[in-house]
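Lecture notes, unit on binding sites. The following record was shown on slide 14. It pairs a sequence with fe (ii) ion.
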Amino acid sequence: MRDIDRRGLLTYLQGQFEIDWKGCHGIAHWARVRANGLMLAEQTGANRHVVELFAFFHDSRRTSEGINLGHGRRGSVLAEQLRGRFFDASDAEMALLHHACVYHSDGINTGDTTVLTCWDADRLDLGRVGMTPDPRYLCTKAARQESNLQRAHARAIAWVDRQTRWTTDSDQAWPISPKMEGR
Ligand SMILES: [Fe+2]
Ligand SMILES: [Fe+2]
């Protein structure tokens, strides 16, 4: 996987983030989308660099927690602006990232494998808002596979459990640990 200055990028994204950094569309969600996406990529063959960039950018420009029109497109525009500063990507990768970000909340389930892997990585994290991912709305065979679905769902549920248990959670503010940076 190509290098990303994760600490620099996430610090920048946090600085411009308009909603709750520790909320259901914040950094912990991004980290789980990343983990889900990289897990699925092992089977789908998706471009891991795009999958990781999608995790960081797709919800980065939300302005509210609910239906928030255009947030994927705004995230994609931001990615284009930050290309070359915190990460590099080819034009083909940027095109995939753009498509994945712009249409990620439109319920589409056909298209390029890397794009579909990004969308499934996001959908597999619905447990954070009390929903169980429905295999009928997942795009890839890998995401519909019971073991992957359960693994991703368990990640989401564990976060919900922690949210309800901890009222002060400074440890959770940075779930991307330096250990993950080489992956
Ligand atoms: Fe989103
Ligand atoms: Fe998301």
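Take-home: The helical segments are 6-16, 27-44, 48-57, 71-82, 91-102, 113-123, 141-144, 146-165.
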